Amino acid sequence: MKEKAIKYYNEGSNCSVSIIKAANDVFNLNVNQQCFDMCKGVRTGYGIGSMCNALEAGIFVLGLIYDDRTVNRLRIKLLTLFQSKYRANTCSKLQQKLSNKNDCSMIIGDVAQILERIIKEETIY
Questions:
Q1: pLDDT by residue (tens digit) across 93-122?
Q2: What is the mean pLDDT of the segment spanning 74-102?
Q3: What confidence tier does 41 reach under pLDDT thresholds 50, 70, 90?
Q4: How many C-alpha atoms does 122 have within 13 Å on its Cβ side?
Q5: What is the tally of structural domains in the chain?
Q6: Alpha carbon of residue 89 to chain centroid
Q7: Range of the domain at 71
Q8: Taking the CA atoms of the chain, what radius of gyration do you get in angstroms?
Q9: 100: helix, coil or strand?
Q10: How would you class 33 by CB atoms within 10 Å of its CB: exposed for 0-12, middle for 13-18, buried for 19 or more?
Q11: Separation CA 9–CA 21 (nearest Å)
């Protein structure tokens, strides 16, 4: 999933769309174009550097797969694992940690990798 998410990002999809497209490919979620279109503006921390939208997209993906109780548990796991690596979860703070502030491919890849691991641990595919 990591490679797919980075590929979509490098092809021009934003961070949230890249995560959702990659998850759609890997887990056969049958996400329609409208869902991708809804995420067009969900990037760069909503344009103000707030919550990392790749992380938010990961939570969106969990919502497509699991019930409310499971999503609530797994979102904390996703956020905690990511936070333990980067010590940040906002776009503005994460970009400060990047050598190229306009290239979030490493972060997108890490979110995709963590998300895939969580889903595979939780679900038998």
A1: 998 888 777 789 999 999 999 999 999 999
A2: 91
A3: confident
A4: 19
A5: 1
A6: 12
A7: 2-122
A8: 13
A9: coil
A10: exposed
A11: 10
